[in-house]
UniProtKB/TrEMBL annotation:
Organism annotation: Suipraeoptans intestinalis
Pfam families: BCCT
Alphabetical list of InterPro entries matching this protein: BCCT_transptr (IPR000060)
Family assignment from sequence similarity: Belongs to the BCCT transporter (TC 2.A.15) family.
GO CC, alphabetical: plasma membrane
Protein name according to UniProt: BCCT family transporter
MF-aspect GO terms: transmembrane transporter activity
Keywords: Cell membrane, Membrane, Transmembrane, Transmembrane helix, Transport
């Protein structure tokens, strides 16, 4: 057992580290930006191949454990059953893992790839095909397989082996109990806390910018720091309150409600949008995605220009790896009683398909405006350059655009709250020795820290440097996740089947 006297080391060291980063990023934003960019550029340039290889390994790992001889093992006792319905479970993990990102990038990313493909001429039917295939790759199976590595291993050790809900605990079969509970394990947990704080704060800031952009576009409310602070304060009260009320009440209610809102929004957008083009884009995009999966997943030029790969694919893989401890811990917490096969199907395949459908609908809304000549290329470039407002500008061109934009803001706020309160819950778990029902005082504290950091970074002039440093700091998680795969295989190999 861990020494109670040192049980709060992760909490206090994490607070100090985050305070230092916060002061540096706000008070000395220019130097922070220079350093974070330099570190991230070095890692993605020199180790881009490793990010690509890592995501492929994570995918092979989840396939092996799900569809091999271990697939029927339950994440808990043999007689345990899921705590949440399939719909609630899906809503919770989807809102935590992808919600805000899909709303933010659903229109803007396909449009950007359409205008500036990796090769060939932009704003052509071929560029439209490339845009869908790329979006499917970035939001499809590989990111969710990455989340499943930590989520599956932690759920197994928490609920079947009765271990604490800590990332370090996953490594115990590989490195031994003493190291897992010593400085090495605590370093892993501190990195997980930092990656979670940085990721959620960046998400808070991006969500705030998009909500403000929506208000400005629809109601003329100015896009100012004062308005953004008000948005953060209001949303903070909601997400801290829902986190304090627990998963079963606050978080679950918001997640369930938003799942219906998001599905409704997507369905209506399909009805008022270019239906045939959306269906064709989905089917063709899926075909190209599956058909070129291995070459695209491992594509990096030895001598050519990897600018597009670095700025999009490697950036995304670094971002999703940075989010892996946060999303993985939360998914583990809500997955007790499911079989390994059921877990992988629910965490990897179903959300990946939902993300592709979302991209086909909203991406086609934007691309259609270019292909049909409704908006000029220069207008489309402005939309792509300002992703926070792109969704609302595009929706305006379709029937019910104003109403759909209001629903989109509501959905964005709900995804925003779900992601933030999931982050509060995970941070509280990680800093209370893995307690799956952490105390409310920790939830409130972490909620306030996230909000204050988001406000500070917006005041300092941007969130990008924090996002960049979080990606650099998460680089060690590639190796931690490799170790998690090996540790899980070692542990599960002792199961009596």
């Amino acid at each position: 057992m861990r020494d109670k006297k040192t049980g709060n080391v992760v909490f206090y060291v994490s607070l100090v580290l985050i305070a230092v980063i916060a002061v540096w990023s706000v008070a000395f934003n220019k130097s922070f930006t220079v350093v974070s960019n330099a570190v991230f550029t070095f890692l993605t340039t020199k180790f881009g191949w490793l990010y690509l290889l890592a995501m492929a390994v994570f995918f092979l790992f989840v396939l092996y454990v799900a569809f091999g001889k271990y697939g029927k093992i339950r994440l808990g006792g043999d007689d345990s059953r899921p705590e949440y319905s399939n719909l609630t479970w899906f809503g919770l993990l989807f809102g935590c893992g992808m919600g805000v990102g899909l709303v933010f990038w659903g229109v803007a990313e396909p449009l950007t790839h359409y205008l500036n493909p990796a090769g060939g001429k932009g704003a052509t039917p071929e560029a439209a095909d490339f845009a869908m295939k790329s979006f499917f790759m970035h939001w499809g199976i590989l990111p969710w397989a990455n989340y499943a590595v930590i989520g599956l291993a932690l759920a197994y050790f928490m609920f079947r082996k009765k271990k604490k809900g800590l990332v370090s605990g996953i490594l115990e079969p590989l490195i031994g109990e003493k190291r897992a509970e010593g400085w090495l394990g605590k370093t892993v947990d501190i990195l997980a806390v930092f990656a979670t704080v940085a990721g959620v704060v960046t998400s808070l800031g991006l969500g705030t910018l998009q909500i403000n952009a929506g208000f400005q576009h629809l109601f003329g409310i100015p896009s100012t720091l004062a308005v953004q602070i008000i948005i953060i304060v209001v949303v903070s009260v909601l997400y801290i309150g829902s986190a304090v009320s627990g998963i079963e009440k606050g978080i679950k209610v918001i997640s369930d409600t938003n799942l219906y809102v998001a599905i409704g929004l997507m369905a209506v957008c399909f009805i008022v949008g270019p239906k045939i083009e959306i269906l064709n884009s989905f089917v063709n995009g899926l075909g190209q995605y599956v058909g070129n999966f291995i070459p695209d997943a491992l594509r990096i030029d030895a001598y050519g220009d990897n600018g597009w790969i670095g700025s999009w694919r490697v950036f995304y893989w670094a971002w999703f790896i940075a989010w892996a401890p946060f999303v993985g811990v939360f998914i583990a917490r809500i997955s007790k009683g499911r079989t390994i096969r059921e877990f992988v199907m629910g965490v990897v395949l179903v959300p990946a398909l939902a993300s592709c459908i979302w991209g086909a609908v909203f991406g086609s809304l934007g691309i259609n405006l270019g292909e049909k000549g409704i908006l000029a290329v220069e207008q489309l470039k402005k939309i792509a350059a300002a992703p926070e407002v792109g969704l609302f500008v595009v929706l305006k061109e379709y029937p019910l655009g104003f109403l759909l934009s209001i629903v989109a803001i509501i959905s964005l706020c709900a995804f925003f709250i779900t992601s933030a309160n999931s982050g509060v819950y995970v941070l509280s778990m990680l800093t209370t020795e893995g307690d799956i029902n952490p105390p409310n005082n920790k939830k409130i504290l972490w909620g306030i820290i996230q909000s204050v950091m988001a406000v500070g970074l917006l005041m300092a002039g941007g969130l990008k440097p924090l996002q960049t440093i979080s990606l650099a700091a998460a680089f060690p998680f590639i190796f931690i996740m490799f170790a998690a795969c090996a540790s899980f295989i070692k542990a599960i190999g002792k199961e009596k089947l």
